[in-house]
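Per reviewer request, we include the raw input and output of the structure prediction for the construct analysed in the revised manuscript.
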Amino acid sequence: MIKSAYLTFVFLVLSRFFVYAQDRVPSWGGGNDTRDLSFGFVFQNINSDFKIIKNPNWRAPFYDADLGRNATDSLRSMSSNSSPGFAVGFITRYNLTEHLELRTTPTLVFSDKSVQYNYATEAQNANRPVSTTSVDIPLDIKIKSDRLGDFRFYLIGGVKYSMAISKKPVVKDFAPVDRPLQIMRNFGSYEAGIGCDIYFEYFKFSPEIKISNSFADVLYHENTPYSNPISKLFLHAISFSIYFE
């Protein structure tokens, strides 16, 4: 539903500017394209989830050595639903050529993810949220089309470094079944997307859709009923961004 809304919004924006591009005197756009180096800011809506790679024995009950017995029944399923978040940040861009641009957009990200566990005994079913506040530092290459009136289409892609700034919960005194699911504090991702630059007289407005996926396993592995069934955990995200330059 959210993805369809994003695509509909972009389609309407593209349609409007393709219709009127030929009849308008091109706007200045704040002069951003005339400078090698310029700055701006960004707002992002993020929907993220986990791609779960299961261990071969992921269904096995969890044995708690302290209790001397199984703390859970056998596991029936694991899943991760898409969860919303948002981010704010700043843009620094450098023109390499007329159609090629290097940019970085450090952002402060507030995002929630979760994994749902369904057991043979339904009373044991659990939802383990993973709430993080992080700083994302991407380095992207932006490939721009020729300008058509007040509109320019572009493709963007690159790599991103994510660093958590929220504290890990203190869990050493918790029983394994009460411990949260935790992810690594630092990890890298690759990302790619599409967008359009829309020029106004004093600024440039750019809606953009982008996907990102972590390069490697982001799970912080512990001996708990929520970590043991998982071999690898990859973070997947779709973001809708609005840039102002």
